[in-house]
Amino acid sequence: MDVLLxxxxxxxxxxxAIVPAYLLARLAASRAAHVSVASAAARAxxxxxxxxxxxxxxxxxxxxxxxxxxxxxxxxxxxxxxVISDAQGREELPGVTVRREDDPATGxxxxxxxxxxxxxxxxxxxxxxxxxxIDGHGGALPATVHYGDHYDNAxxxxxxxxxxxxxxxxxxxxxxxxxxxxxxxxHGVIESAGGLTYSGQSGALNESIADVFGVLVDQRTAGQRxxxxxxxxxxxxxxxAVQGVALRSLSAPGTAYxxxxxxxxxxxxxxxxxxxxxxxxxxxHINSGIPNKAFHAVAxxxxxxxxxxxxxxxxxxxxxxxxxPASDFAAFADATIATAAREYGEESEExxxxxxxxxxxxVIEDAAIA
Length: 370
Fold this sequence. Notes:
Elements: E1 16-17, H1 21-29, H2 36-47, E2 61-66, E3 72-77, E4 82-86, E5 96-100, H3 109-129, E6 141-145, E7 154-156, E8 161-163, H4 178-192, H5 200-222, E9 232-233, E10 248-249, E11 258-259, E12 263-264, H6 280-283, H7 289-302, H8 310-318, H9 329-344, H10 349-360
Parallel strand pairs: 4-6, 6-8
Antiparallel strand pairs: 1-7, 2-3, 4-5, 7-8, 9-10, 11-12
């Protein structure tokens, strides 16, 4: 598969950002009059360096009760600890705190969207998989909105989610998309679970897993079954001027956009089209289309709510000891197959669906001919 990419594009782009640097590079290079503001915003976004930061401390809700013998009993239950800050158009973190966990809505759309989106993401991990926040131990969920001037991205910096307001010509505010919010928070979960090195196939897995839970939060919040969902990441962040529906599509990688300025979605859906490149950290946002397609195949084969079985298999695999930071597609496929067998049995439809999906995208060979 031939994809034109600039190997120098990502010098200063944040590592775990929702908009890949190659897409911003195309926008930055455009001289089209109708995207002049967006082009300048993309150049500024690419030129802004981002430092990585340590994770914050933990928090949990404590429920106190008295047992029959008069003793005090303490019950700890998962509770989100959201802290939303406003960068007020500057590239300085964290910004001014505008809303904490027990505060009412601010009336600022971006701050309240971030607050609600972090809550929906927390709810999926806590209520479906028993995970208490990013670190599993009640860590805080900090986010900063209104970052920079026309900043064209959202990213996870190791400590917090950070959201720009977009340029208004190509990108809108990034908090408008629940899948974007959940994607960025999931990068923190991946790191806490042991991490996947952000380059090559392990990096593409990192991006794919963030996409998977991004769409699962979106679907769970909307109450959608697998066959009802759009399977899109970032469907709300393009303006009407863009010829496209979203940043990425898990159901049909390579079809999310085909635009005169942004170019065509370069994601492959099968290993035969795997993109060999030194750009994009070795194609982390590009080749993630392959494991994305595999997850979609599992979820639609099983039917029902995708977070219940397909999502559970992916989550248990991520948080098991079966992966290393350098795990590639085949290693992850083998691990998900083993998880499905352990949790549901080797003769189960779950095990069959997972093996069939990875075979379908060319990551593993058909057991019948292997």
